[in-house]
Amino acid sequence: ELTNHKSNIFTPERKRxxxxxxxxxxxxxxxxxxxxxxxxxxxxxxxxERMSKELGVNLYIKRDDxxxxxxxxxxxxxxxxxxxxxxxxQGCDTVFTYGATQSNHVMETATAARRCGMRPxxxxxxxxxxxxxxxxxKLLLDTILGAENHILPSCGxxxxxxxxxxxxxxxxxxxxxxxxxxxxxxxxxxxxxxxxAAGFAECYIETMEQxxxxxxxxxxxxTATGSGGTLAGLAAGxxxx
Length: 241
Known about the structure:
Oligomer: single chain
Number of strands: 6
Radius of gyration: 21 Å
Helix content: 40-55%
């Protein structure tokens, strides 16, 4: 009787309604959270038909490289909507951030800072030393956007280690600008703070809503990770549901 009773409660239809209710409740929690409008959402979600057939799995992709504000910088805009609102609320006029010379995060931060009327200052670890007469790709875009670029030799270290070794330079620069009457908002590598990660908690909920609309119950969500903020946000979103 207990088995039958449970089977009557936990029917597929009941599960579907419950997930939809959870999604709507989670979305309602995010609705009043302030941010600046920078991206284009929801991002596309669809099945990779030929790869699914070749690999023998049902493989879907979420095109978070289409978040904007341009098509060259990956998915960092979700974090920056929250981070730059926080910067504006604090009255900051300058944004510092860090990464490798071809960092997606740095370029998107420079783009978003300009959009919000702030001046971007970026410190870049030179994994490959750029040639002064051959500036290209993300570093070229940083330059076009008018970011104040500082190139630091990596000396065989990771970008994270390079930035940790040069923290005294950053702090001295921030103090100098403060003495001149500027206020700096400091964004770490990848925008990986609790505020930034909120963007990917919201992304998880958006993804699950797309799965729900398509009648899918996915087993795995796979993402690349560097500084950990995207992964932390997705984990938080999973916990919310």
